Every structure is written in C-alpha cells, then in structure tokens.
Amino acid sequence: MPSFNQKIWRLIDKIPAGKVSTYKELARAAGSPNAFRAVGNACSANPNAPKTPCHRVVSSGGKIGGYAHGVERKIRLLASEGIRVADGKVTGFEERLFRYRTL
DNA sequence: CCTGGGGCAGCCG
DNA sequence: ACGGCTGCCCCAG
Q1: Fewer beta carbons within 10 Å, N or C terminal of chain A?
Q2: Which residues of A are catalytic?
Q3: Does residue A12 contact residue A98 with C-beta atoms inside 8 Å?
C-alpha cells in the first residue's frame, strides 16, 4: 500500500520528457485536490532526484516554482529536454502540460 | 510586488 | 494518539 509520497512519485514518473505538470494537477491525480502543498513536500523528499523527474513539476500557471537542488539546476534540466523557461515561467506551458486524466 | 489565510502529509517530541 | 512546525503551494486582496 503506497503512501501518499509513493503515489506522487509514481505519478511524476509518468510525466514524459518534454512535458510538465503542476503540483495542483498531481494533487488532483492523487485524489487529494487540496494537497498541493504536500505534493511539494513529496518532491523535496524524493529519494531518486533525477530518476524521478520532479524538475518537470512546476507551479500553477507555469511558474517555475522551486527545486531542492537549486532552481538553476531545474531550469537547466528542463532546457535539456527542450523546455524553455522565460521570466520565471514555462513558455508554451498550456501545450506542454501533461494531463493525467480527463475527469 | 507583497501579505495573509487556507489546507495537507511528514516528521519530531 | 496528539499537538506543533515545516514546506519545490494556491488564491484572493
């Protein structure tokens, strides 16, 4: 029985390269729409840093958000996947957003 | 831009 | 089990 964190990590693993998701979306996909904050916690507590791509998780509206290993690193990782970040936001966020389910 | 309030899992003590 | 604190947050003002 996976804990909340496990569920979150599992969901994050499903995000394909070149796409991004948000804390809010993850919370919704995990079944707790208001647990977006706990999602952020799960990411920082993520045991496998690059393995589980928490760098593909941004804040709502496409804002870059934070990163335990430094936001700089996060931006670089995203850039290497073809995702550009300008002015603290993901360019073309709406199009690059990975949707888990169509409710 | 900044502030305050809300809401939630995890980790102490 | 219980209360208090923390955090890669969100939203309204």
Answers
A1: N
A2: 54
A3: no
